[in-house]
Amino acid sequence: MDAFRTADSILHLIDSVIRKRIASYRLENPALSSSLLQRWLATPATPACNKVKISFDRSDETIRCSLVPHLSAAFGRKGISVLTDKHDEFCKCIASVFIFSKNYVSIKESLDDFFKTSQRRHDKVHVVATVFYGVNRSELEGNFAKALFEHPTSYQASQLRSAEEIITLPGHEKINKQSDCEFVEKIATDVYEKIFPKERIGIYSRMLQDISNLLCSQQWGVKSIGFWGMPGIGKTELAKAVFDQMASDYEVTCFLQNFHETFETKGLYSLLQEHFKNLTNQNIPKRVLLVLDDVRNHLYAESLLAELPSFSLGSLIIIASRDDQVLSQYQVNQTYKVEGLNKLEAMQLFSLCAFEKDVKETNLLKDNSMKVIEYANGNPLALRVYGKEMSSHEQTSQKETLFLKLKQDPPHQIMEVVKSSYYALNDNEKNILVYIAFCFTGKHVEDVSKLLQDLGFFPEIGIDRLVANSLVTISENKLEMHNMIQGVVKKIGRCSEDSNTSFKCVLVMSYSTIFFNQLSSTSSISSYVMLFQGTTDIEAISLDASNLNPDVELSLFRSMYNLRYLSIYYSNPGKHGKALESFSLPYGLRFFHWETYPLKSLPQDFDPSNLVELNMPYSQLQTLWGGTKNLKMLKRINLRHSRKLLEVNELSEARNLEQIDLCGCKNLQSFPSIRNLHKLRVVDLPSCIKIKSFPEFPSNVELKFEGSPIKTMYPPVPLIRVKSLCEFLDNPTKPLNFERHGPYILDILRPGSFLNSQKRITNPDMVETPPTFKDIMCEKAILMSQWALENLKSFRKVDF
Disease resistance protein Roq1-like winged-helix domain spans which residues (predicted)? Predict the structure, then answer.
């Protein structure tokens, strides 16, 4: 109890009691809590707060009738309303404009207005602008001193200091050749940019209101909130904006920018001494506003706060991080994901950076500018950097070329921001990120996870970490990556910058049609060949072969000993490049995709021992290989719509095969024996019109064969696995004959399964119905045995 014997401690005790009473009252009266917090977070974007106070000499007719109306109109065009000195609503203003003239300070009314308005000077969020109209600074200072001499007791010392500071501020002075329109536009633009800095577009209009609502919903006490989002999205600027708005309501404030880097370079003790020395010496809890920017390790934040004294009720801790998991580990009360700018805000920011003017209409921006805006996809950093880069080029062709260059070679500022997130990942996460950037953007998560697992990675953990670090997003179950991040990651992959890691980062090469068009000269082709032959570290290639140069030999793939992923596709279906005679593949290939593959078979010298997935839809294949190959690793094969395919007998020894897709292979004569394929789960045979019979296969296989006139199915083929039976029966083709080797359980049938079916079912004597099946509607279905009808005793309703 000794701590409470001092006067300060007693006052603190009283303060604590009052705060608890207020907290209790606030819980019973939420409106009070909301109104207080709304005052803390009063934002300029709210219409009621979008006002500027203009102070001027009303006796000067030129200023009153010409300058002020023009200035008011300029503010109005920017969405800012104006208050003149007739209004007494200074508290609602976010900015003050002082128009100093020769007689401004000599008139008591103007002088009183000046001193009253100047008191807002120390408000961090209040903007002050000065205009010298017909008077220079030294002349104004002399007039000001004279006015103070005439009214020595009218103003307080604090008012005098504020007034002196305002007079010494840099101001706008009209140049002789400058028109009034240019002059007022310059003033309005200056004030607008101070009120709404480019870095905070979108923050005042939307985000602060969201933060206000979140904080209002928290119980009274020490509040905390975390901001997270992708690199360059504006987490730091949002934290600064909240800090600026709320700082005046706290006893102690501290904004620690680049917290992670500062903590690692200076250490905990230096941080405490530099920023919290006075706070740590206090025995009385203070009401603290603390912002930790760029937190990457929750233990750093926890160790800092553990050394600080207890905060008073009403304190607020804000943590900004790229990693959502850091916020979860720190256990902040609430998290807020910082989203990108909307289209209007993006246009506004880009135009301010590129053209130094505010453009908010799409038709006023040229196509190349809109392409950049769409590419930036709402990321403020990308919009600012690309806008600044584009501002140095005037011709449209130059801008288009520059944009292509920026996509291939991102600016240094963007590279550094994204690379800092990349290097914080482990090797597994880095590899997965590079593969997604080059090969898997827009692909289904489940499919990508299977492929990555087949390539030797751990996607379940890695993808979750990339999402938490805001490097990858999942939308409609598909992996997406922001263009800015994708551009940086691709450059990292091409340059193999992470070669010092214990597990070398994959090098992925993606060749586009544009790249191949550049290979017109012999020297270019030679360089290309040398690139392929010399780059043995390449692990993945995604190749657009629409306009493949005839001189490029695909046999070069064989020399890429580390190549594990190869995808060849055609962005232009009408252009399939040169006629291919042969090519080679490396031994270690695990994933091979080639749309419209042009040859009759795969290379005879290709050893598919490591192949896990083979995708060759719409191919010209007639057979896979001439002879038996080792397919011990093969899990999935997709040959759908390969209309010349005759047989796939090689698959009979693919013991790890899980999925076979032969949909639309209209010349496929038979299906091989797969009794040894114990891992097989799905077989797709729709529209395989020449397959007459189906061999024995495991009982846990899902068979789809609608549109295929299969006459014979050998046992054991439980119809419970024939998921497409209902659709098959609705196609009136030849009768389906289930040869009698045992009972078949019609577990797949549901009420109405045979509705409108006209298919003749033969040999139904061996049909045994499940006891759980009660209702069936079988219009026009023909059963050939009275015994079978008698066997349907478990049905409650049979409709023919």
Answer: 426-494
